[in-house]
Design goal:
It is built from 13 helices and 21 strands. By secondary structure, the chain is of the alpha+beta class.
Length: 440
């Protein structure tokens, strides 16, 4: 099974406590270019300078965003901006957040080092495919900085909440760090230093498999870096390259939330709505929900409600097309009818999932996208408002609204060794970069 360890985490100096709201960022892969600029402006010590540095026109092999991040990290450590814990510990990480429907939720877990190993049953299990570009970027950063700035989010089975009960009492005291992110989510940390508690948690988790929820690119980057270090002959057998930082939460935690990852498509050479509908009509019933400027919000709410009514059934999507004043509601007529259009190597466990049907039938068959190499043509957002507004503004050609993938579907795919399409899940909220760092 997976192996975990406590570690001497690096974090911002207590002198920065009052500024943490302006120092932390989300994970690099959900930061837009506009947000990157905003984080740079928010504070001179913002972690953006490490996780997603700016690219300059005159960048070279010796001076680029990765080498600049390494230089900044070294400087901040020397100046005491960043400090290392005095003893190995687990970090309790809690997030309190506003749910999309307006309620208030919270989730907690522990940050630990997990032994990097090849994907395999009983160890670390993925559930979705990755793109090459982000992995190459993260590998360059890891080579330069020899540090991890954002924990990978992973899930484990703990029906009786043994781990949570072990550390729960510590959260009754004041947190060591507290910050509010741009979405209003509050992030808090505490340290588990008691050796008996650490040993108990390690014993429980030694019997568990870890399912990657968020951070597949970062895990595969850590795996590639480990292999490089082993092959170089420079690394010690149990050196820091053998471990990766993870945020481990219970799969049955009541605060665990998956939002849909709506697809935003651009770069289509010829967008012919009539042709798309002709291709889809044998497989989907297509209903138009037309709107005016005055009632557009009301009609879009109706669209979303009708899609959500199929969350436990599946096969229902919203389609928003540039230049149209009608939303399309697509409802699959027969799951068996689309089987012949799917790649033969797609396992039966994935064929009925909305993300698979969307990728294979709608994006691939009807729109003609290369399903495996559409990086750059598809963007993702958990927000229906963004999926709609960017089409209406002309920034995106077509948006597709869908229901979220469920935890049980993700777990089944992972246990069977099957990978869902890219960005099949959007776990919310996102753990921040900046509160817990692992510097080798």
């Amino acid at each position: 099974m997976a192996e975990i360890q406590p570690f001497r985490a690096v974090h911002y100096s207590p002198s920065c406590a009052k500024d943490l709201d302006r120092i932390i960022t989300p994970p690099y892969d959900v930061i837009s270019q506009e947000e990157q600029e905003a984080f740079y402006s928010a504070h001179p010590l913002n972690i953006i300078r490490l996780v997603l540095g700016k690219q300059n026109p005159d960048d070279s092999p010796s001076d680029n965003r990765y080498t600049r991040a390494a230089g900044t990290l070294k400087q901040w450590l020397q100046e005491g901006v960043l400090v290392r814990g005095d003893q190995p510990a687990f970090t309790i990480y809690q997030m309190e957040f506003t749910e999309p429907d307006g309620g208030r939720g919270s989730i907690d877990g522990i940050v630990a080092l997990v032994k990097v190993d090849d994907y395999g049953k009983g160890k670390v299990l993925p559930h979705e495919k990755t793109y090459k570009g982000p992995k190459q970027d993260q590998l360059s950063l890891l080579r330069s900085c020899r540090a991890s700035f954002t924990p990978i989010h992973a899930l484990f089975s703990d029906d009786h909440n043994v781990v949570g009960r072990e550390y729960g009492g510590l959260m009754e005291g004041p947190p060591e760090q507290e910050a509010r992110d741009a979405n209003g989510s509050v992030h808090r940390t505490w340290s588990i230093r008691d050796e008996e508690s650490i040993a108990k948690i390690m014993g429980v988790l030694a019997e568990k498999s870890f399912f990657i929820a968020d951070g597949h690119h970062r895990y595969e980057t850590a795996l590639a870096f480990r292999n490089e270090e082993r092959e170089s002959g420079r690394a010690q057998a149990e050196g820091p390259h053998e471990y990766v930082m993870m945020y481990l939460t219970s799969m049955t935690h009541p605060g665990l939330m998956i939002l849909p990852a709506h697809r935003l498509v651009k770069g289509l050479a010829d967008l012919d709505l009539g042709q798309i509908e002709t291709i889809l009509e044998p497989y989907f019933s297509i209903e138009e929900l037309c709107y005016t400027t005055a009632n557009r919000d009301e009609v879009s709410n109706t669209l979303v409600q009708r899609i959500r009514s199929y969350s436990n059934v599946g096969g229902k999507f919203g389609m928003v097309v540039q230049g149209e004043n009608c939303f399309r509601l697509l409802r699959l007529k027969d799951y068996h009818a689309v089987d012949s259009l799917m790649d033969v190597d797609i396992p039966s466990s994935l064929r009925g999932l909305d993300v698979t049907i969307l990728r294979e039938i709608i994006l691939g068959h009807a729109l003609g996208l290369d399903k495996e190499n559409a990086e750059g043509q598809i963007e993702y957002t958990p927000l229906v408002s963004e999926a709609l507004n960017r089409v209406l503004k002309g920034e995106i050609q077509v948006s597709f609204i869908l229901n979220p993938t469920r935890v049980d579907q993700m777990r089944t795919a992972a246990e069977l060794g099957h990978k869902l399409p890219h960005k099949s899940t959007y776990f919310y909220p996102k753990i921040s970069s900046g509160l817990v760092l692992n510097v080798f």
